[in-house]
């Protein structure tokens, strides 16, 4: 007991020590490889912080990749509340950043205002549209990839029931659920089956299943447990960290239930649950941010906006990993065909939450 | 419940200060809501055309005794239950009930109302009621542990709003030490100790340095969130082997776990759950039937008097706050290795504060807090289970029901509450 106590105290002490030493953030490292450039890109995180394993982390990864390839200087400031958006953006402008990248649709208003007030400053924003002339928007039509996920889930479900739930009823979340729902309906129409979607009906967006949290894994586990009791065997949680609770519930089912992850390849971002991840619906934030900075660093104009689609690889399905052998080749071929049909426009996705292409 | 407010009264007793006309307002409101239920639930379109509501009573799995599904005609059942509500409302309007009769009437009213709502919502669908109960127990367990911690601290006169932080450090330590040592029990002990350590910190600052205790608790919460977040980034994110998915496996108690409905819910859980049940009994009996309990209550009510008869007030407070910390730490243990979930930043997600609410709504008594926690859990379980049924009630509203239910239950069943008299006041010898 006393030993353990000492260990706990030791770890706590050590952490304070490390905290004291670890004050040098990564952005101060000198450029690796590429020649130093006088271009600087600065990012404002949303309240999730730089290590949210989601869009802030992905955006920062894109910034760092751009730093490697162009030698541009990159840095970020973290927002701890929505009240930080405007001061953070203003601070970066006064530091003479060439490009200010704001992360998240919630920052759209603050960014728009700053852009109006500083007509010569270039901005870019993730998960929101462009505001000409100086805000470059990066959006992702994840309904397309979720459509594939829905079709896959319907094809893989043994019980004929699949389920989805969200973190909060906001468009960046429900767009996934819409696409998933439509994918299942498309499967039913093609195969004359009746696979049921629990937790979401695109026609009744007010009555879907929501965890009301992006961190409460216990809630995610309870929601998933309820779905499993109702017979669902594939679950699609669109709720960030809360979704890990669904993965835990699936893991306990002993192979009967699987999960489709969102945003990043689950086998990389939450590898402990890789054996229950059928696949993941990915959002290529890092790549988009990287390309944007590279373009700007070369001195080229950022025009129009970026829309991640199946066609340009801005969104898609991750590899099946451990399920690769279990997904029938026929289904894989059908998914490929549907992907082409979505790209060509033969299959129309009707979700009202899709970003308008410009 | 009719109480006189002398220093010896148990905290939380309602004052019998109801006005003579009080029951008219209450009865009138209850009758109106009952009539609303009749129109909305019983006669609404959802329950039309002989629609049936099916309640499954078995969990998936190898249950020895299966109970057949409970199928009821939705319309007539909802009408009958709503009429019960109306009847109770009229009764309250006509007669001025007091004491246990009033409690019984209000309980019957609430049960009938919730049942009518459930039948209406399930109409044309099926709802797994046992799954709802299971979700209730899973959600209530950390709240119960947090509330028990609160009972120990506040009954001895120290306000503890740091339960959230104790959950976080407990959850972190449990996951970390269980992963590193490979032993779940090591994780459990470490989680409890981490909570206890934070409790010790609270005790020192509250008793030795007389820091304002609410502010202190908030600061400790921030400290715990920062510390665990930092350690998570430095240790766990880079090395998933420090944050494995591990969990106590379910222990099925023979015979009892085969009971229909309640069997798997109450007797098919894991060791942490059984430990929680034991702790409820220990704290309840300890607080009201032992010398330690009497002294604890004395120290929380009237420390000066306790001191004059030779009770060491500050030592008592130290001991109880640390003990409470150990229990809240166990609540953190439940959040990770109790639920088979890996640690994640801020994963307590406000449950420490809900535990605090359960403590107050439970009138600072262990059993009261347990009831309040179960009520929160049940309302949460219901809202989770109803979401997929596509009721006309928006999800946002369903998510609000746990809190709504609590407000009504507290107003209807609990009445005025009183904290321990010396709660939050540091004791110094003058």
UniProtKB/TrEMBL annotation, chain A:
Record-stated family = Belongs to the BMP lipoprotein family.
What does UniProt give as the signal peptide span?
Answer: 1-24
Q: Which Pfam families match?
A: Bmp
Q: Does the keyword Cell membrane apply?
A: yes
GO CC annotation: what is one? plasma membrane
**Membrane topology listed for this record:** Lipid-anchor
* First-listed, main subcellular location of the protein, grouped into a coarse class: membrane
**What protein name applies here?**
Nucleoside-binding protein
Organism the protein comes from: Thermomonospora echinospora
Checking Gene3D superfamilies in the record gives:
3.40.50.2300
Alphabetically ordered keywords of this record: Cell membrane, Lipoprotein, Membrane, Signal
Keyword Signal assigned to the entry: answer is yes
Q: Which residues form the ABC transporter substrate-binding protein PnrA-like domain?
A: 41-348
Q: Kindly list the residue ranges recorded as spanning the membrane.
A: none
Q: Which domain of life is it from?
A: Bacteria
Q: Where does the record place it?
A: Cell membrane
Instruction: State the PROSITE patterns in the record.
Output: PROKAR_LIPOPROTEIN
Which lineage ranks, top first, belong to the organism behind this chain? Answer: Bacteria, Bacillati, Actinomycetota, Actinomycetes, Streptosporangiales
TrEMBL record, chain B:
Which keywords has UniProt assigned to this entry? Cell membrane, Membrane, Transmembrane, Transmembrane helix
What organism is recorded for this protein?
Answer: Thermomonospora echinospora
Q: Which domain of life is it from?
A: Bacteria
Name the UniProt record assigns to this protein: Nucleoside ABC transporter membrane protein
Sorted alphabetically, which Pfam families does this protein's record hold? Answer: BPD_transp_2
Q: Where in the cell is it found?
A: Cell membrane
Q: Which GO terms describe its molecular function?
A: transmembrane transporter activity
Q: Which GO terms describe its cellular component?
A: plasma membrane
Q: Where are the transmembrane segments?
A: 24-43, 77-95, 107-123, 129-151, 158-178, 184-207, 214-232, 271-288, 321-341, 372-389, 401-421
Matches recorded under InterPro entries:
ABC_transp_permease
Indicate whether Coiled coil appears among the record's keywords. Answer: no
Annotated membrane topology: Multi-pass membrane protein
Q: Is Oxidoreductase one of the keywords?
A: no
């Amino acid at each position: 007991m006393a030993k353990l106590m000492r260990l706990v105290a030791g770890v706590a002490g050590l952490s304070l020590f490390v905290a004291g030493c670890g004050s040098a953030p990564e952005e101060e490292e000198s450029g690796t490889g590429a020649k130093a450039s006088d271009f600087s890109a600065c990012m404002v995180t949303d309240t999730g912080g730089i290590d949210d394993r989601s869009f802030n982390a992905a955006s920062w990864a894109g910034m760092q990749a751009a730093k490697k390839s162009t030698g541009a200087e990159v840095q970020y400031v973290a927002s701890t509340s929505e009240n930080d958006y405007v001061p953070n953006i203003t601070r970066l402008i006064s530091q003479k950043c060439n490009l200010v990248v704001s992360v998240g649709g919630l920052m759209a208003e603050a960014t728009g205002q700053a852009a109006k007030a500083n007509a010569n400053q270039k901005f870019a924003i993730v998960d929101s549209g462009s505001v000409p002339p100086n805000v470059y928007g990066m959006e992702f039509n994840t309904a397309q990839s979720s459509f594939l996920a829905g079709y896959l889930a319907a094809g893989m479900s043994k019980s004929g029931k699949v389920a989805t739930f969200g973190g909060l009823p906001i468009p960046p979340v429900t767009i996934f659920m819409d696409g998933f729902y439509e994918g299942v309906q498309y499967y039913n129409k093609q195969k004359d089956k009746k696979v049921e979607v629990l937790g979401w009906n695109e026609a009744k967006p007010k009555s879907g299943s929501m965890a009301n949290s992006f961190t409460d894994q216990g809630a995610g586990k309870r929601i998933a447990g309820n779905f499993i009791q109702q017979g669902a065997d594939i679950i699609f949680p669109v709720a960030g960290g809360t979704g890990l609770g669904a993965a835990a519930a699936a893991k306990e089912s002993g192979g009967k239930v699987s999960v489709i992850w969102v945003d990043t390849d689950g086998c990389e971002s939450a590898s402990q649950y890789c054996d229950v991840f059928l696949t993941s619906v990915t959002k290529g934030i890092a790549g988009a941010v990287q390309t944007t900075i590279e373009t700007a660093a070369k001195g080229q104009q950022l025009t129009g906006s970026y829309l991640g689609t199946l066609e340009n690889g801005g969104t898609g399905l991750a590899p099946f990993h451990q399920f690769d052998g279990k997904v029938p080749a026929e289904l894989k071929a059908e998914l490929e065909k549907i992907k082409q049909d979505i790209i060509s426009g033969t299959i129309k996705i009707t979700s009202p939450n899709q970003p308008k292409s410009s | 419940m009719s109480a006189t407010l002398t220093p010896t009264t148990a905290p939380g007793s309602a004052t019998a200060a109801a006005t003579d006309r009080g029951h008219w307002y209450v009865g009138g409101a209850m009758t109106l809501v009952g009539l609303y239920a009749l129109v909305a639930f019983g006669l609404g379109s959802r329950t039309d055309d002989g629609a049936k509501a099916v309640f499954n009573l078995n969990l998936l799995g190898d249950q020895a005794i299966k109970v057949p599904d409970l199928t009821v005609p939705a319309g007539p059942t909802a009408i009958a239950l709503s009429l019960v509500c109306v009847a109770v409302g009229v009764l309250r309007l006509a007669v001025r009930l007091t004491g246990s009769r009033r409690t019984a009437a209000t309980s019957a009213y609430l049960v009938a109302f919730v049942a009518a709502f459930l039948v209406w919502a399930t109409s044309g669908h099926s709802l797994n009621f046992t799954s709802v109960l299971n979700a209730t127990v899973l959600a209530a367990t950390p709240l119960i542990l947090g509330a028990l911690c609160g009972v120990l601290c506040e009954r001895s006169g120290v306000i503890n709003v740091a339960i959230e932080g104790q959950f976080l450090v407990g959850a972190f330590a449990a996951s970390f030490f269980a992963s590193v040592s490979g032993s779940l029990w090591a994780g459990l002990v470490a989680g409890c100790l981490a909570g206890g350590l934070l409790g010790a910190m609270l005790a020192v600052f509250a008793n030795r340095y007389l820091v304002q205790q609410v502010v202190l608790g908030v600061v400790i919460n921030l400290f715990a969130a920062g510390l665990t977040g930092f350690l998570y980034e430095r240790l766990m994110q880079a090395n998933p082997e420090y944050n494995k998915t591990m969990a106590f496996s379910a222990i099925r108690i023979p015979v009892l776990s085969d009971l229909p409905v309640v069997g798997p819910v109450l007797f098919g859980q894991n060791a942490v759950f059984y430990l929680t049940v034991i702790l409820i009994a220990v704290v309840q009996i300890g607080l009201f039937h032992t010398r330690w309990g009497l002294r604890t209550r004395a120290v929380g009510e009237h420390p000066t008097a306790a001191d004059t008869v030779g009770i060491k007030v500050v030592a008592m407070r130290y001991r109880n706050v640390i003990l409470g910390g150990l229990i809240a730490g166990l609540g953190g243990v439940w959040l990770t290795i109790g639920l088979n979930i890996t640690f994640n930043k801020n994963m307590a997600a406000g449950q420490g504060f809900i535990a605090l609410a359960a403590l107050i709504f439970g009138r600072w008594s262990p059993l009261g807090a347990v009831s309040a926690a179960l009520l929160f859990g049940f309302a949460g379980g219901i809202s989770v289970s109803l979401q997929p049924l596509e009721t006309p009630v928006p999800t946002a509203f369903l998510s609000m029901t746990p809190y709504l239910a609590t407000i009504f239950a507290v107003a209807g069943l609990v009445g005025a509450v009183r904290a321990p008299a010396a709660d939050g006041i540091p004791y110094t010898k003058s």
